């Protein structure tokens, strides 16, 4: 059986979050979406579930963390090229995201980090396997 990873993130404004992520090119699976949840398809095996904070709280007895005030998870999305890293970062910034830290370039790896409107930080990473050996 193939496994599917569902990464679920609590969000303050579902419509704004949906616009942010679809603006990065992630399609929505409407079959798994409703007025409190948006299912974004990253690949056949990975989905990002954006969940209204109140609905998210139904799944845990613990307080729901605010990504703007603390780190709750580390997220990384690979890109096929440096240009794609920059294109994703540019799209994120144009849709309400923010630059989390300066870009990093060590020759074989090129990365930028952006935060979505709720403060979830995404590392956008290209690994040059040729340059890295």
Brief summary of the model shown:
With 133 residues, the protein is α/β, with parallel strands linked by helices. The protein has three helices and seven strands, in the order βαββαβαβββ.
What are the main properties of this structure?
alpha/beta; 4-stranded mixed β-sheet; 133 residues; 3-stranded mixed β-sheet; 3 helices
User: How would you sum up the global shape?
Assistant: globular
Order of neighbouring strands in the sheet with most strands: 4-7-6-5
Mean pLDDT over the residues: 93
Overall radius of gyration: 15 Å
Structural class of the secondary structure composition? alpha/beta
Oligomer: single chain
Helix content: 10-25%
How far apart are the termini?
A: 34 Å
Described by strand count, sense and barrel closure, the largest sheet is: 4 strands, mixed
Number of helices: 3
The string of secondary-structure elements, in order, is: EHEEHEHEEE
Q: Which parts are unreliable, with pLDDT below 50 for 5 consecutive residues or more? A: none
Count of individual beta strands: 7
Question: In percent, how much strand structure appears in the residues?
Answer: 35-45%
Overview of this structure, please?
This protein is α/β, with parallel strands linked by helices. The protein has helices at residues 14-22, 53-57, 82-94; strands spanning 5-11, 37-43, 46-52, 75-78, 98-105, 109-115, 121-127. A hairpin with a 5-residue loop joins strand 6 and strand 7 (121-127). The model has no long low-confidence stretch (mean pLDDT 93).
